[in-house]
Write a structure and sequence with these properties.
Blueprint lengths: L2 H11 L3 H13 L5 H14 L6 H14 L5 H7 L1
Helix pairs in contact: 2-3, 3-4
């Protein structure tokens, strides 16, 4: 894809492509049955989305993701946000 496409996304979202690729890589290789990995991803998503994730919300999201385990899809994550 062209650099202008990535620049347009960065300008619209305020998130660098490097950060998005890092998150995508973490999600694609994550073990969604491992609580520490899930918590790390929840914090990363909150940081990239510039949304505060307090301990209670982190717990709720983590528990929800852990219940779904490896059957979690990208659309499931989008619904949670």
């Amino acid at each position: 894809m062209s650099n202008s496409f990535f620049r347009a996304i960065e300008n619209k979202t305020g998130v660098s492509m490097e950060d998005l690729f890092t998150l995508a890589n973490a999600i694609s290789y994550a073990d969604f049955t491992d609580e520490s990995q899930v918590r790390k991803i929840v914090r990363q998503v909150g940081k990239l989305a510039n949304k505060p994730v307090n301990k209670e919300l982190e717990d709720q999201l983590t528990n929800s993701i852990l219940q779904k385990g490896n059957s979690l899809s990208l659309s499931d994550i989008e619904k949670m946000l």
